[in-house]
Amino acid sequence: MLLVKYELKKYFNKSLIIFISLLVITTYLDNFLHYQLGAEKPNIVAGNFGLSLLITQFYLIFLASVYITSEFQLGTSKSVFTGVYTRIEIINIKTIAIILISLCLGILNWIIGLLLEIILLDSISITSALFDLLIIASLYLIYILSVLTFSLLISSICLNRLVTIIINFGAFIFIGDITVQIANRSPKLAKIVENLPFYIVTNGFNNLRINIDSLILIIIFIAAFYLSGIVIFKKRDLT
């Protein structure tokens, strides 16, 4: 746990300050549009949806993209990955740290939504709210594991932060726009794209819901990319 705490401290930097600032602004905007102007939101206790959820998505993708490649960017990869702990242990420690950050953001999302419903709607079902907390925490966990394992595979191949960031954003952000464009030209091809794990994960996170069939596919996706990334990374020459 000491190493996990040390890893967590690395993320208290300017990028976190920028993210928190944007999250506050967009959270207010999303909830103002919903409660004052009737804009839609997921049927779940959540304070972050729409733009604020997209900002969270950006931040999580960024963290997943740099959690390994930052060591190569800073020139600390040799000391980190060739020390007392094995490469797998170091990767798992880094993974746990980002999972904790992601779960904290998910819980924060729920707390904001709960407080707003108590204050503005003056009614809340505790049982239903706790069930929503479980759903949100699970969705955040599934999402970050999906991005982390894919990032592990890409990082193990290229060892480059910028390349990993670009590929991750392409896979988990722009695939939705690509699907819309394809749907206008070829509905059959769009159906194929919609069944890709990248699209399923992103769509589930954006809408804060996912079905069991999709969940099984995502778990297979996570396991496959994690194992592939670990195998490649173990064999890489990092000197």
TrEMBL record:
Swiss-Prot/TrEMBL keywords: Membrane, Transmembrane, Transmembrane helix
Q: Which residue ranges traverse the bilayer? A: 12-29, 49-68, 96-121, 133-155, 162-183, 215-233
The identity of this protein, by name, is: ABC-2 family transporter protein
Give the organism the record lists: Terribacillus saccharophilus
